[in-house]
Amino acid sequence: VQLVESGGGLVHSGGSLRLACVAAGFPFSEHAMRWYRQAPEKERTFVARMCMYGEIIDYADSVKGRFTISRDNAKNTLYLQMNNLKPEDTGVYYCKADGYPVWGQGTQVTVSS
């Protein structure tokens, strides 16, 4: 199982970023996928979840209305569109497949005030 996140960067408050997670080594379309983030010196926390075909989508309260999770099963890719970013969104963002205890290297998101 391999997960490779990308798309992070440095943006000003109110800016946008689109993260991507390319998956390999397992049947991507048969697994729910999640985004997590880890702020400096804090625990890794849940951000968003999307089931196999998008029939169930959940968000952490802190990102509702600003972030949108999506997936392209044909490309084995999970996305996270992040709008109206805030400094408290700063952290390393990771994707994860339900059923596999594997993490990618993450992608750093830094939001300046």
Structure notes:
It is a single chain. With 113 residues, the protein is mainly beta. It is built from no helices and ten strands. The strands form two sheets. The protein has a six-stranded mixed beta sheet with strand order 2-10-9-4-5-6, with no helix packed on it. Strands 1-3-8-7 form a four-stranded antiparallel beta sheet, with no helix packed on it. The radius of gyration is 13 Å and the shape is globular. The mean pLDDT is 96.
Short overview:
This protein is mostly beta strands.
Q: What features would you highlight for this structure?
A:
113 residues, mainly beta, 6-stranded mixed beta sheet, 4-stranded antiparallel beta sheet, globular
By oligomeric state, this entry counts as single chain
Discrete helix count: 0
Order of helices and strands: EEEEEEEEEE
Apparent shape: globular
User: What proportion of the residues is helical, as a percent range?
Assistant: under 10%
Distance between the termini: 37 Å
DSSP summary, beta strand count: 10
Provide mean pLDDT, rounded.
Answer: 96
Taking the sheet with the most strands, its summary is: 6 strands, mixed
Strand share of the residues?
Answer: over 45%
What structural class do helix, strand and pairing data support? mainly beta
- Compute the gyration radius: what is it? 13 Å
Walk across the major sheet and give the strand order: 2-10-9-4-5-6
Low-confidence region ranges: none
